[in-house]
Specification:
Chain lengths: 772, 158
């Protein structure tokens, strides 16, 4: 179901705003779409990784003799092979060696990599490598890592990475590798003065992104060049990291990105690429490394978290103060943990008019698998907590939760955080729309609960994107843009944007995958930035082409430039029309040549709003209705509604797919997904048999995506991104709905056992401590 | 290990070769026959990305020995694309934008083929249950369910 609300005129060219079919649908349906694991390079070897069975140990010795003796084994990489280079990487903190050097820090850490003539030979060789470890007591929980006498996961201070984007990094304290906080006003005083205070401690689980395609790389290192085919979201950042690590010139590192079988953040930044390049360097041949699911689960995951929060309100129903302390478990290496911590900090206050706020977040090392990006990170961690407290205050003040929020949310232009971009969305309007979509205020069946949630996610990452548009002699256009197509429909949206400017049918615009040798720079695919930032670069590049067409048309028609515009595959002055094809012929004097346009988005130029951080505030706003079975503790999501506050919908159908996909992931994260570790740091549920993700049976009876178009985004045609907001919004709405059904939970996922136990403590205040 | 001699029909073409007895069907299809449309993900028969049809029944080729297709018929996405059913279901998937990353899609279509051949009308809840063996992390399933309702409810049985 969809509701499209627009005050904008429909586009002249008829591309933007329309449900143009995905350009890649047919190739994917037919099974012909190429993913990294489908690539076969001549001379290619198969890689397999030996991973640590221990969470914390010294490596005493590594005996490769039996493995090397196996027929078909070409090379084996260990830490000893990395002595001629600086083997540490990490875009935030350079804390991670390509493979373990002298010590291991989590179960699953790569210790050695075999390259062999076939995968089965490589796997057999892995089993023949004899490593002697001296085990040490691991630090496998946040609680243990934060003890004053906890062993340190890292004894040496890591150097800052090349792309942390966090300004001056604070000194590490114990196992805390990064800290982010801010405050305003007099929090202590406001809590003393408050009429209502709600506080609690909350837990959020480690979860696995589960892109169906696991991390996959083929690397071919020859001389001073390397070519890498990789399932990566951030090819240009990976290129930079590989160039740094292997001391290669940037333009000698070539990243080619085929279709991705899902990303969701799991393929952001550098993952398996350094291992693949290092083993190729050693073997002198191209090597393919494709993870199994259990390996991808220990390659990256979502941060588990503990949070203490309290919220204060006045007797007259104003939210006045909030404090949040939280600790994110980033595992053995920082990965994107510092950014996740900062984004969580920005999400902690929620979009309300606080008199005072204090936020203090810590990113903590433990001896577990590294945690990084996963869709809506930070916002999803904090929003459900803040929104549960807002609802509890509304309940105590006997105010309707919708009216309470409408009264307290920030207005357009309100200060979200000092120094950040003011609020660029109409939250009251969005709240009213989502409430209408879920029939807010209607009587409910016993055992049902309806909840709302509103939050903001700092989106857009660093706004640096370039694009090139080439218009050929046949008036077909090719867009070169570094956005990774990972299922979201980026190639279709980019084609629509260029088609709109040039007044072409969008199927006449081709968008291919990134090849860093030819595709201009794009910072990354993530943070809901592609349509907004890369899309703006595509729009500008197409306008550059259009300017050249109009220049030729102006000469031909002998009219000033401002009389001309693109229409129906050509240029018109309102009376006469000439096709792009004829303009190209007129310009070059023969049936060849092409027009090439460039577009660039950078922080200090273009639309002024790219000069402020974040690029935009992604609205995380949703509602849910749930049924809670008091006998079994089973929670069922009956229906959901989410807001896609996108400024301008380039393709409404693709937006709905984003919100529906996010809704199912939210149901998993809220109700059953959780990576469970034993005390020794071993992941207990490392297959999809034990780690359940949502199936078709988990689809709610109804999912409504309300698309809001206020033209208030900094992207092309007033667009701003989407796709993450619904994840944080729906997760929090499920939590507030379960609370509205009478069961306020302080730990996710809300498994039947946890919900049932919580129900048993309700009405028994002395047993409240047993709740979670 | 002693090699096994295998004779089967794959996508309507006879295949005869000698393979290791422990070779999995998914690896046989992808690495020996170059049929790369069959995808591998979970390796434990949960996700359905590797679904192919053996004698018209869906199997997870990640947990099925290639040796066990001896004397049988196998259909993969490459063999489905030329059928009228494929065109019908593909149009419905395009119409509903039920394809996102595309990694689960070939397996979904082979499951859909089985549902289509079964031919009996089904409720929305049955369709969900029938699709529960094919995971998709992108779409949220609704568009796939809608596309299947369209495709399985229209046109002659192929």
């Amino acid at each position: 179901m969809a509701t499209v609300i627009t005050n904008l005129p429909s586009s002249k060219a008829g591309s933007v705003g329309h449900e143009v079919p995905r350009s890649d649908a047919r190739v994917k349906l037919s099974g012909k779409a190429q993913f990294t694991g489908d690539i076969r390079v001549p001379g290619m070897l198969y890689g397999a990784v030996l991973r640590s069975p221990l969470a914390r140990a010294r490596i005493r010795s590594v005996d490769l003799r039996a493995a090397l003796a196996l027929d078909g084994v070409v090379a084996i990489l260990t830490g000893a092979d990395l002595m001629d280079m600086d083997p540490y990487y990490g875009h935030a903190l350079k804390d991670r060696p390509i493979v373990a050097i002298d010590e291991v820090r989590f179960v699953g850490e790569p210790v050695a990599v075999v390259a062999a003539s076939s995968l089965s030979v490589a796997e057999n060789a892995v089993n023949l490598i004899d490593v002697v470890y001296a085990s040490e007591s691991p630090v496998t929980s946040l609680q243990a890592a934060l003890l004053p006498d906890s062993p340190l996961v890292h004894t040496k201070r890591a150097r800052p990475g090349f792309a942390h984007g966090l300004g001056q990094l604070p000194d590490p304290e114990g196992n805390v590798c990064y800290r982010y906080g801010f405050s305003k006003g007099d929090v202590s005083n406001d809590f003393v003065q408050a009429a209502v205070v709600v506080e609690g401690e909350y837990r959020f689980p480690a979860v696995y992104q589960y892109a169906l395609e696991t991390h996959s790389v083929v690397a071919d290192h020859r001389g001073d060049e390397v070519t890498i085919w990789a399932s990566c979201q951030h090819p240009f950042l990976v290129r930079q990291e590989i160039a740094d690590l292997f001391d290669l010139d940037l333009d000698r590192v070539r990243l080619i990105v085929p279709f991705l079988g899902g990303g969701f953040g799991s393929k952001s930044y550098t993952k398996m690429e350094p291992i693949a390049v290092a083993i190729s360097r050693k073997a002198g041949r191209p090597v393919r490394v494709v993870n199994r699911v259990d390996e991808s689960m220990v390659t990256t995951r979502r941060h588990n978290m503990v949070c203490r929060m309290r919220t204060a309100a006045s007797a007259t129903g104003e939210l006045i103060a909030r404090e949040a302390d939280f600790w994110l478990d980033t595992g053995a290496y920082a990965d994107n943990g510092p950014r996740v911590t900062a984004t969580a900090g920005d999400a902690a206050p929620g979009p309300y008019r606080w008199r005072s706020v204090r936020v203090d977040g810590r990113c903590v090392y433990t001896n577990t698998a590294p945690a990084g990006s996963y869709r809506a990170f930070g916002a999803i961690h904090l929003q459900w907590i803040g929104e549960l407290q807002v609802d509890e205050i509304a309940r105590r003040l006997q105010v309707d939760p919708l009216e309470f929020r409408c009264r307290n949310v920030l207005p357009v232009g309100g200060e979200v955080r000092a120094g950040a971009k003011p609020l660029d969305a109409d939250l009251v309007g969005d709240l009213r729309k989502v409430a209408a979509a879920i029939d807010w205020g209607q009587p409910r069946t016993e055992g049902r609960g309806v909840g709302l949630s509103v939050g903001l996610l700092a989106a857009g990452a660093h706004p640096v994107s370039m694009a090139t548009v080439r218009l050929g002699a046949d008036a077909g256009a090719t867009v070169l843009v570094g956005t990774t197509e990972m299922g979201q429909g980026a190639r279709t949206a980019m084609a629509q944007i260029a088609a709109e400017v040039l007044a072409l049918p969008s199927e006449q615009v081709v968008v291919r995958g990134t090849d860093t040798q030819y595709t201009p720079y794009d910072r990354s695919t993530g943070a809901s930035r592609s349509t907004t930032v890369a899309g703006k670069a595509v729009e500008l590049a197409a306008r550059d082409v259009l300017a050249a067409l109009e220049e030729t048309a102006a000469a031909k028609f002998e009219v000033p430039l401002d009389r001309l515009s693109a229409r129906a595959g050509g240029v018109t002055d309102g009376e006469r029309w000439i096709s792009h094809q004829d303009l190209i012929r007129a310009r070059f004097g023969f049936a060849g040549g092409e027009l090439v346009g460039h577009g660039m988005v950078q922080p200090s130029r273009g639309s002024g709003s790219f000069a402020e951080g974040p690029v935009f505030w992604e609205v995380c706003l949703a509602a849910a209705e749930v049924a809670v079975d008091p006998v079994t503790g089973v929670v069922r999501v009956i229906r959901t509604a989410s807001i896609a506050d996108v400024g301008r919908a380039i393709n409404p159908q693709l937006i709905r797919r984003q919100d529906e996909g996010a809704t199912l992931q939210a149901i998993g994260n809220a109700l059953f997904e959780e990576m469970r570790y034993d005390p020794e740091g071993m992941l207990l549920n490392d297959t999809l048999l034990d780690y359940r993700v949502p199936s078709a049976l988990d689809v709610p009876e109804r999912m409504t995506c309300v698309i809001v178009e206020n033209g208030d985004g900094p992207g092309p045609f007033g667009a701003k991104g989407c796709g993450e907001g619904a994840f944080a919004g729906v997760t929090a709405a499920i939590a507030t709905a379960v609370a509205a059904a009478g069961v306020p939970m302080q730990e996710l996922p809300m498994t039947p056992e946890r919900v049932w136990r919580r129900i048993q403590t309700l009405g028994h205040p002395d047993r409240e401590g047993e709740a979670s | 290990m002693t090699a096994v001699v295998l004779t089967a029909m794959v996508n309507g073409r006879p295949v005869s070769c000698s393979i290791p007895p422990n070779l999995l069907l998914v690896d046989f299809l992808r690495d020996e026959l170059g049929l790369l449309g069959t995808k591998q993900s979970c390796e434990v028969q949960v996700c359905g990305a590797c679904t192919v049809l053996v004698d018209d029944r869906p199997v997870s080729s990640c947990c099925f020995l290639a040796a066990d297709i001896d004397g049988r018929r196998v259909q993969t996405i490459e063999g489905l694309v030329d059928t009228p059913f494929y065109e019908r279901v593909a149009q419905a998937f395009v119409r509903h934008a039920a394809v996102q990353c595309g990694f689960c899609t070939p397996g979904m279509l082979l499951t859909a083929k089985v549902l289509d051949e079964r031919g009996t009308p089904m409720t929305a809840q049955q369709l969900r249950a029938d699709l529960a063996g094919n995971l998709c992390r992108c779409t949220g399933y609704q568009s796939i369910l809608d596309a299947l309702e369209d495709a399985l409810g229209e046109g002659p049985q192929s």
